[in-house]
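Input/output pair, single chain:
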Amino acid sequence: MCTNTRTWSTDLTFYALSDQFSLRKADAKAWSIYYSVYYNQAHNGFFKESAFDVYDGDNSFWVFKDEAKIGGVILSASSMYNLFFIPPFNDELNVVKLIKQLLVDFSDGSKDITVIDVLPHQVDLFSRAGFWVDINRSRWMQRPTEVLDIIWDDCVRIETPVIEYGKYANELEIAELLFESFKGGINAARRGHSSNESFMFNLNLNHFTSSMLNASTLVYDNNTNQLVGACLLFLCNYQHQRIFSPGVFNIGVLPTYRNKGLASKMLKRALTHLYGDYPILRIGVLQGTYAESLYYNLGFMPLDVEVERLVLPSSEIKLLKSIQ
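Output:
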């Protein structure tokens, strides 16, 4: 199918951006190879075990100028990410504006258009095209798995979480712990965690496998039977790749139990349980939180800080559509 329609469909193979520029459906494997070279070497090296993995074939597009391939992007009806350009092409801003207009044409104005996980060198580019920068800055950190010595205090006991019907069996208890752990801090303010319900999730069993549960930790105070710490793991597929690697889904310790090494011990336990099955453990952390130094002191290597997303708000989309 080849058409100039401005309606989003995963069946379409061609979108005209202008008389010169177009988007053309890409073979996912070939697209991934180009992405691994041209997106960002430091970033791709960080995720090197999946650098040549097959991306979402329905959403991978080449960017063409006339008949010359000049870049690539992953696109959906209301978002884009992983935009890259092939040297010596240097008219990036024009292309971003054209893709933005295409997304506006797709939109009915009911929700925002987002650019996801924007690398530092791209923030100014998307901002100049009219996207609004989100307040959240985060980074990935990673460390090789390893068998580590862990000595637990006698006053605490260790359990592994259980999933029943797509939720943690003690979901309310875990949600209360995480809410109390984050309450009043940068994470809560910037993530909008305003209640226990902010930490209640439907869990995809493809991500929360038995190996992830066994590497997760619940810490209870033996005297009160209160849950005082939790480190929950899952298999994350970064940027919709099909190679999964362990990541920390959530970690928290009650304020009154901090400075006892519980977070460090839970992470060491995770690294130990994963060793032999998975080479690396990853964790995402907001910039400016105390957790950054904790992970660094445990040997986690940081990637550059990213803007989590840039947004074209629905109000702005409606305005743009009204003046077309």
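The chain has ten helices and 17 strands. Residues 145 and 279 are 5 Å apart (CA to CA).
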